[in-house]
Specification:
Elements (H helix, E strand, L loop, with lengths): L7 E2 L2 E2 L7 E6 L4 H12 L5 E5 L9 H15 L4 E4 L14 H13 L5 E5 L4 H13 L3 E8 L6 H13 L4 E6 L4 H17 L4 E5 L1 H10 L7 E3 L13 H16 L3 H9 L1
Parallel strand pairs: 3-4, 3-10, 4-5, 5-6, 6-7, 7-8, 8-9
Antiparallel strand pairs: 1-2
Helix pairs in contact: 1-2, 2-3, 3-4, 5-6
Length: about 270
């Protein structure tokens, strides 16, 4: 019983259809640190690597970014790489790079065929978003249209509208991450994800952050979130849990779903 949409990249389903896909961030500031961190994380066998280039001190130097991406591509072998610059307004690091330089870095790594997915925030300037979209398309990569709120959880209708905005702008995957104040906010995020998964024909990535939100990283896939971000080395956002814990929880929940009666399955599909 599949609960989330598979992510298809260059004619194949990522992770062999594993649900959820587990993505581990890389946050090293330089080339040597990135090499060491990638080796540690890859040993834990994530389905995806997210290179958080806002942590990388040479982001303004497009040739340096390409060099690092090439090294990472060689290490990762067939593990897909998600290239992410998170802005400071959405929880990222302060960087000494302009939006033009960020766009140039995205275009350079895509032109070299070194990444498989590119994250671009929905709040980006339209021209920069479209440049990221075109760069990703040029090498067969997928564009993740993302929205993050580190202060609060908007209501369910607004969250569904964020997923829909990603589809409207031409993203291939829609991502929403928010900060809960309580468990009601966690339920709001899960409800919005379920609604969006039924209404929007894109794979979704959804999570609440922080301690309360860790629940969504373990079971969010049951509500339609295709990817869970988990710790392989260092966390890149609050509430991330180790890769092994995500997989253990998923295995237990899958067993429960497989044990459900046909009548249970019919009721779940109709709800």
């Amino acid at each position: 019983m599949r609960m989330s949409k598979p992510i298809r990249l260059r004619g194949r389903v990522l992770g062999g259809g594993r649900e959820p896909l587990v993505c581990a961030p890389l946050v090293a500031p330089d080339l040597d640190g990135l090499r060491v961190e990638a080796a540690q994380v890859l040993a834990r066998k994530p389905d995806l690597l997210e290179w958080r280039v806002d942590f990388f001190q040479d982001l303004a130097d497009a040739p340096g970014v390409v060099e690092a991406a090439g090294m990472l591509r060689q290490q990762a072998a067939d593990v897909p790489i998600l290239f992410t610059r998170r802005s400071i307004r959405e929880g990222g690091q302060a960087i000494a790079a302009s939006e033009e330089q960020v766009s140039a870095a995205i275009e350079a790594v895509c032109a070299a065929g070194l990444v498989d997915l590119v994250d671009c925030e929905l709040a980006s300037q339209p021209a920069h978003f479209q440049r990221a979209r075109a760069a990703a398309a040029s090498c067969g990569a997928l564009l993740v249209g993302s929205f993050h709120d580190f202060q609060r959880t908007p209501d369910a209708q607004e969250l569904v509208s964020r997923f829909a905005a990603a589809a409207h702008l031409g993203a291939d995957v829609a991502k929403v991450a928010v900060m809960p104040r309580d468990l009601d906010d966690v339920l709001c995020l899960l409800q919005a994800t379920l609604r969006a998964s039924r209404a929007i024909d894109l794979p979704l990535i959804a999570m609440s952050m922080g301690p309360y939100g860790s629940l969504t990283r373990l079971c969010g896939w049951m509500f339609g979130s295709s990817v869970s971000f988990a710790v392989g080395g260092r966390a890149s956002a609050p509430g991330q849990v180790p890769i092994e814990d995500v997989r253990t929880a998923a295995e237990l929940l899958h067993r429960s779903l497989e044990a459900a009666t046909p009548e249970d399955a019919c009721r779940a599909a109709a709800s």
